[in-house]
Design brief:
36% of the residues lie in helices and 24% in strands. It has one domain: 3-Layer(aba) Sandwich (Rossmann fold). The chain is an alpha/beta fold.
């Protein structure tokens, strides 16, 4: 299994004199789902921002989607971000246009020009997330779960190698959260690596996968015995 994300003794943060995370070492393979749990302000979002080059790697080694973050030129960042899609808690859909036009906007912004190819790709991703019948509805006409599915469809448009999901069920009810976790696991089976930051420990228990914990300024992998205990204790 080829590594899609690789960190080795990495230092994460905004300034070398005050790092947020140190000695970060882990890897994620093709088609793998990995969860990241931890308290608020533990450094989870900073790690994600490092992965898509919003903040630089301070020290150590990191390779994401075959891009070496230690020597990444600014001109290469847009190409990295075509391989790494991000799904946020608050959906971030454009409220002034329908689902179809939200997706068209992304495709055209990333170089798609042929109308037939754009139409076909939109149909493919909406089919994948189960929203073909909602293609021409406005975001305000959709439920929270449907909006998040559109956000996931948007993330899939350019066939990414990695999806980084930052609390994707934070605004959703338990039943809808269950559907979103199922969807991410189905996407992973097609080869996309999923790195999912979550406080939803019930879903982590329901859909088990490798789980990392952000705690005490570093990242550690929980063993099967660790993940069998009460997650709420880990999050306190």
């Amino acid at each position: 299994m080829a590594n899609k994300i690789y960190f080795n003794q990495a230092t994460i943060g905004y300034a070398a004199e005050s790092p947020i995370l140190t000695d970060v070492t882990f890897s994620i393979g093709e088609g793998e789902v990995v969860y990241l749990i931890g308290k608020t302000a533990a450094g989870k979002s900073s790690l994600l921002k490092t992965m898509y080059a919003e903040i630089p790697l301070l020290d150590g080694e990191a390779v994401v989607a075959d891009y070496d973050l230690t020597n990444l030129k600014r001109s290469k960042i847009p190409y990295l971000r075509r391989k790494v899609s991000v799904v946020f808690q608050d959906f971030q859909l454009l409220s002034d246009r329908n689902v179809h036009d939200n997706l068209v906007f992304v495709l055209k912004a990333t170089g798609w020009t042929k109308t037939a190819q754009i139409k076909a790709r939109i149909l493919e991703v909406l089919t994948q997330v189960g929203l073909v019948e909602k293609e021409y509805e406005m975001p305000h006409q959709l439920s929270g779960g449907e909006q998040q599915r559109v956000a996931i469809a948007r993330a899939l448009l350019n066939d990414p190698e990695i999806i980084l999901a930052d609390e994707p069920t934070g605004n959703l009810d338990p039943e809808t959260s269950d559907e979103i976790f199922q969807l991410f696991h189905s996407i992973a089976k097609l080869g996309c690596a999923i790195f999912l930051v979550t406080h939803n420990t019930q879903m982590v228990s329901r859909y088990p996968a490798r789980t990392l914990q952000c705690e005490n300024g570093t990242i550690t992998e929980l063993t099967q015995n660790d993940t069998a205990i009460d997650f709420e204790t880990l999050m306190q």
